[in-house]
């Protein structure tokens, strides 16, 4: 079984090919290169280096968001077009769960954080004691609101993600010695991790590829305003 | 393109620069084999215009469906194609990126060359789908974002001889429609209203400098707003039909006169119109009559090839393909892309 994994849901780029449970080639970069410039050349490189052909792939895994709207869409568009034209199943994985999985050996609660600007975050918290079970649902939160939820858990929380540093002072101020910083080696998404999570799921129907869409976890601003207006009337 | 094509060329075109997700297969740059357009207009109506983020979200939902449909209607498989052409710019960047990344993934998976096409070159080449282009040629490009006179001495050679200094013609139509409380997109409604009216409010014609081929429509738009405002203040009822006709008469007269003057100066063999506003009945009639009198062949594509579509991208892409133009997997969306000649 050969998997291609792609995650561009935030500024890092992660791609990998995994064959029968072994990483064949993997690339990760955190150089703020526009994904439209970087993603397809990275995928092209993977195939060149492994001397494989796109048609040899059996399934595709993609980071489905949340994160940068444009970033998520680039990864999802590439993944769904490849899956559709190669007639292979496509599995989407939460970009927050993907980060949390990096710290899955930690015993307790992990919170993955992605900057959503203006003191807002995309975040989710997972308990590692029985697989990765969600304790704070993936979503768009104010930093303050998220930290309150985590404080109420009253247990140590390990924070993972390359955006955590932006918020570390506030996290410490709220959670004190319940705040645990994951080592930086766990901060970037890994496409082999993505494939490992995807391979635990049942493969969806090939026909489902057309209706695959990103999980934005947030309405477009114009739509949110429009709904507000309708309620006001 | 005749003589230098040895075998049939089939190019897949993909377009997503604004609010239509489109895919099409064109044979030899001149014959539509399939042409699929998924329009989002209904979804944007409640916002009174295209919302970029919403447009991008819809493109992701539609893009594989329209490509599949284009192949199905053509009864073709990816291996029957020679290349993939996609709109590289200008347009809404988030929207462009969906078509571009779908095109790249499709081209990569199927081992096909990739060609990035300028959206306005596409609008111009919609004409190649109807009759061969004869050079030297003058193109009047009138769309939602552009109003330009483009001189072409041969295929792939573009010389901008005039452009709007403010609003594009389509933009002016849509803004005036809003003033008259007409639903987005207003262009086609104003066109219809102008036709239903015998009387016209007299609005100014903006000619700019005597020898200029540039356009300006923002003054005309302000004149419409002022007219309505003054009438309302004096308690006079505004007849929207008369306003529509007055506005359209002014736009059509200026576009026609400048196109005629340029056609004469550049001594062209053919005049073509392109872009969404070239669907306008008043403009088509005026250009047709004018150039019939002048004895210069004038062409404008049928309505569905005037507005955004992928057949025009495939058509332009075919001529670029023959000229050896290729893009690579690092292609990015170029919202402000300029129309440059691909002819060496
Ligand atoms: N019959 C008509 N009369 C006048 N304007 C029209 C008519 N039909 C369409 N339009 C206008 O054409 C525009 C849409 O054209 P088109 O789709 O080519 O533009 P665009 O793709 O948004 O812009 P661009 O091609 O410059 O990027 C709109 O402004 C619309 O109001
Ligand atoms: Mg257009």
From TrEMBL, chain A:
What domain of life? Bacteria
Q: Which CDD domains match?
A: ASKHA_NBD_TsaB
Task: List, alphabetically, the GO terms of the cellular component aspect.
Answer: cytosol
Tell me the GO BP annotations in alphabetical order.
tRNA threonylcarbamoyladenosine modification
Tell me the ranges covered by the Gcp-like domain, including all copies: 31-226
NCBIfam families, per this entry? T6A_YeaZ
Q: Which PANTHER family match?
A: TRNA N6-ADENOSINE THREONYLCARBAMOYLTRANSFERASE, TRNA THREONYLCARBAMOYLADENOSINE BIOSYNTHESIS PROTEIN TSAB
Which named protein is this? Gcp-like domain-containing protein
Q: What is the lineage of its organism?
A: Bacteria, Bacillati, Bacillota, Bacilli, Bacillales
């Amino acid at each position: 079984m050969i998997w291609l994994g792609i995650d561009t849901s935030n500024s890092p780029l992660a791609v990998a090919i995994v064959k029968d449970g072994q990483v064949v080639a993997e690339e990760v970069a955190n150089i703020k290169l526009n994904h439209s410039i970087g993603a397809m050349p990275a995928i092209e490189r993977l195939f060149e280096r492994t001397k494989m052909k796109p048609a040899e792939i059996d399934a595709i895994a993609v980071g489905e968001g949340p994160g940068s709207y444009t970033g998520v869409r680039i990864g999802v568009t590439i993944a769904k077009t490849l899956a559709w034209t190669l007639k292979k199943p496509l599995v989407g994985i939460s970009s927050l769960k993907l980060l949390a999985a990096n710290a899955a050996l930690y015993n307790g609660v992990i919170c993955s954080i992605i900057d959503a600007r203006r003191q807002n975050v995309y975040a989710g918290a997972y308990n590692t004691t029985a697989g990765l079970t969600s304790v704070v649902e993936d979503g768009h939160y104010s930093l303050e609101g998220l930290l309150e939820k985590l404080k109420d858990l009253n247990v140590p929380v390990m924070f993972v993600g390359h955006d955590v540093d932006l918020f570390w002072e506030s996290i410490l101020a709220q959670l004190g010695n319940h705040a645990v910083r994951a080592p930086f080696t766990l901060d970037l998404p890994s496409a082999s991790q993505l494939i490992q999570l995807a391979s635990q799921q049942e493969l969806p129907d090939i026909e489902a590829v057309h209706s695959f869409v990103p999980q934005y976890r947030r309405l477009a601003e114009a739509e949110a305003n429009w709904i507000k207006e309708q309620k006001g009337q | 393109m005749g003589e230098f094509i040895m075998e049939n060329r089939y190019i897949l075109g993909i377009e997503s620069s604004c609010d239509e997700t489109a895919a099409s297969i064109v044979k030899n740059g001149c014959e539509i084999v399939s042409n699929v357009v998924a329009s989002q207009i209904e979804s944007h109506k409640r916002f009174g215009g295209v919302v970029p983020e919403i447009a991008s979200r819809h493109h992701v939902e539609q893009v594989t469906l329209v490509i599949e449909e284009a192949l199905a209607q053509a009864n073709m498989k990816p291996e029957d194609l020679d290349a993939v052409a996609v709109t590289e710019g200008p347009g809404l960047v988030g929207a462009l990126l969906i078509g571009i990344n779908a095109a790249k993934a499709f081209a990569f998976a199927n081992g096909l060359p990739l060609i990035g096409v300028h959206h306005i070159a596409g609008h111009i080449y919609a004409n190649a789908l109807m009759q061969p282009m004869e050079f030297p040629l003058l193109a009047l490009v009138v769309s939602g974002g552009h109003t330009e006179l483009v001189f072409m001495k041969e295929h792939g050679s573009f010389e901008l001889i005039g452009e709007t200094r403010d609003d594009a013609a389509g933009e002016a139509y849509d803004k005036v429609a809003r003033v008259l409380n007409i639903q987005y997109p207003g262009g086609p409604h104003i066109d219809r209203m102008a036709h239903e009216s015998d009387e016209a409010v007299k609005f100014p014609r903006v000619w700019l400098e005597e020898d200029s081929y540039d356009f300006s429509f923002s003054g005309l738009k302000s004149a419409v707003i002022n007219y309505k405002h003054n009438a309302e203040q004096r308690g006079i009822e505004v007849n929207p039909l008369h306003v529509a006709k007055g506005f359209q008469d002014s736009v059509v007269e200026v576009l026609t006169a400048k196109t005629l003057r340029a056609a004469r100066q550049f001594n062209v063999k053919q005049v073509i119109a392109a872009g969404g506003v070239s669907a306008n009945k008043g403009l088509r009639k005026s250009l047709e009559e004018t150039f019939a009198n002048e004895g210069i062949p004038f062409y404008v594509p049928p309505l569905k090839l005037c507005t955004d579509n992928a057949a025009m991208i495939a058509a332009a892409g075919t001529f670029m393909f023959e000229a050896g133009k290729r893009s690579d997997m690092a292609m990015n969306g170029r919202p402000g892309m300029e129309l440059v000649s691909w002819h060496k």
